[in-house]
């Protein structure tokens, strides 16, 4: 059965996802929407979509599932409008710009029994699937610590989406969401968050060092930055060993298992395409099974991550708000 996808937005993430969607069996890019109908038409032509138009046109197109790839603050309005129409959703991370906005979307999706999932593609990479299985099998004992960093050098440009607070700019929402989600995945929601960092002249966060503490002593040491590249490394440390996600950890293809005095075990797990195929596969699987949430990326996990993100931004003094979108 063909699953007809719609894509909201025409930027870099939308293009990456559209390229991989062509590799997913039974997936069809049916419609592209944008604030600019001409840009939507160009994108549709580039990726072979049957239709294009405004966001309103997209919402009324009757697609089977909608992928929202707009800037973070615009996710909220588009997701609520899609849920109102009963359209299943895959929403880019960070899920929304605020925790309150995330709660609104989650509550609406659950009340309407409409499928909704955050597009945290890392969780569906074959290497992460294998990492999850290794940890669950007790290969490293009980997980007690996660270390992860994600930094990229970008020249400060206040007109760029990456640095514009009105568009959800800053390192925490764009890059910090990855290590935070990884820590949440293996350790669950922390009890306390401590964040320190630097900001740009316009108030957007340039870098952040994040400590997630659990009352039982487990913890995560995380970092993100838009001012400098970092190794992109991640390690899950357990009571009997450790598991390294070889850089870049947000789409790794190698795992390194270390236990006791034994030498490191290297496990290879290549992805299909650029790696976005696997989250699309999960959406198809959930829709076919009649699920309204993914068991791998449940909405409660998304809310936990959004709580940490908001705590980080609050402590850094970075304001964030949802945006109005004409739908």
Automatic annotation (TrEMBL):
<dbReference type="InterPro" id="IPR055170">
    <property type="entry name" value="GFO_IDH_MocA-like_dom"/>
</dbReference>
<dbReference type="InterPro" id="IPR036291">
    <property type="entry name" value="NAD(P)-bd_dom_sf"/>
</dbReference>
<dbReference type="Pfam" id="PF01408">
    <property type="entry name" value="GFO_IDH_MocA"/>
</dbReference>
<comment type="similarity">
    <text>Belongs to the Gfo/Idh/MocA family.</text>
</comment>
<keyword id="KW-0560">Oxidoreductase</keyword>
<dbReference type="InterPro" id="IPR050984">
    <property type="entry name" value="Gfo/Idh/MocA_domain"/>
</dbReference>
<dbReference type="InterPro" id="IPR000683">
    <property type="entry name" value="Gfo/Idh/MocA-like_OxRdtase_N"/>
</dbReference>
<dbReference type="Pfam" id="PF22725">
    <property type="entry name" value="GFO_IDH_MocA_C3"/>
</dbReference>
<protein>
    <submittedName>
        <fullName>Gfo/Idh/MocA family protein</fullName>
    </submittedName>
</protein>
<feature type="domain" description="GFO/IDH/MocA-like oxidoreductase">
    <location>
        <begin position="130"/>
        <end position="244"/>
    </location>
</feature>
<feature type="domain" description="Gfo/Idh/MocA-like oxidoreductase N-terminal">
    <location>
        <begin position="4"/>
        <end position="117"/>
    </location>
</feature>
